[in-house]
Amino acid sequence: MTRVLSGIQPTGDIHLGNYLGALRQWALDQHEHDSFYCAVDLHAITVQQNPEELRAKTLETMATLVAVGLDPEVCTLFVQSHVPYHTELSWLLECTVSFGELRRMTQFKDKSMKQGDSGQEHVSAGLFTYPALMAADILIYDADRVPVGDDQRQHLELTRDVAERFNSRYGETFVLPSAAIPKIAARVMDLQEPTNKMSKSAESALGAVGIFEDVESIAKKFKRAVTDSSNEVRFDFESKPGVSNLLSILGAATDRDPELLAEDYAQYGALKADTADAVISVLEPVQLRRSELLADPAELDRIIARGAEKAGEVAAVTVSRAKEAMGFLSPS
Ligand code: AMP
Ligand code: TRP
């Protein structure tokens, strides 16, 4: 059976890009594959976090994963730091990946530059070695398939390279994983600056749509979405990023081809209104489930504890295999 693993950082507010690019795929995958999903709190600390906020966000993220339809009876849902084998394998992989490979990662270049721009000189070493930890997250579960948005493509390629190098140095140890990137909405763009991806740290509050936002606010954001002055509805990200972003969001929310959808619209106003309606109908059931769940914190604690146990059992086996292959003396 195909093994699936993916993770999301418990920082900021989970947005429509996370949902359409990743989480929706996770929910579908759980019924077809043996799936593991986690809140990657160890990744979150690559930039400084407020401790109380990190704790609260981690819990909230776990509630969100259940709310988007991940069923703890069907898949394994856990908090990354509850399975300490991730950090152990990460070190073995840090010694397998090269400095040059890490230096080429665009996410590192972007994030370290952003830190500098915001006046923060401090760029942690963890931000640099982050892809080794991500490779550990994936390889530790022998995952074949990793459902992610387009921005993680490069990290997945690196994970494969690292696994291949390890296997050729020390013998077959790891499964080579592939990225599963959705055909539509793999890169949802900011509604105000459609040449930037929608992100948790959006410049403008109007640019990102949180998955738990109230429906009036979602409708308002789509109404104000930046388009262009030509008033021609056409799917072409190069010359019409704003309109194309709306078309791909609408396409993803209604399971239709954005290029064909473009033919149905003569005006931006109608496209914006329909996109808002489609997004709201996709998000409403998610919002309802989350309020039910937050009303029962003990249930969420049970889910998290059970997930750590299930994930830990699998991870322990892989780490021993990797240590054995690398030549560590086993404790007698
Ligand atoms: P992060 O919020 O960076 O932890 O991302 C969690 C998941 O959401 C990853 O699989 C990302 O690739 C995906 N993702 C993040 N932003 C976007 C976006 N704007 N469009 C599509 N997918 C995204
Ligand atoms: N790097 C991913 C992101 O920023 C999060 C992540 C960490 C992840 N470990 C992973 C995604 C393992 C998939 C598989 O979105």
Describe the largest sheet: 3 strands, parallel
* Total strands: 5
Structural class call reads mainly alpha
Cα distance, first to last residue? 34 Å
- How many domains comprise the coordinates? 2
* CATH homologous group name of the largest domain: HUPs
Describe it:
- The strands form 2 sheets. A 3-stranded parallel sheet has the order 1-2-3.
- The chain folds into 2 domains: 3-185 and 296-326, HUPs (Rossmann fold), CATH 3.40.50; 215-291, Tyrosyl-Transfer RNA Synthetase, CATH 1.10.240.
- It has 13 helices and 5 strands.
- Helix 3 (51-67) crosses helix 12 and helix 4 crosses helix 7 (125-139).
- The model has no long low-confidence stretch (mean pLDDT 95).
- The two termini are 34 Å apart.
- The longest helix is centred in the C-terminal third of the chain and has 30 residues, at 297-326.
- It is mainly α and 332 residues long.
- 42% of the residues are buried.
- The structure holds adenosine monophosphate (AMP) and tryptophan.
- The site of tryptophan (TRP) has 13 residues, from strand 1 and helix 7.
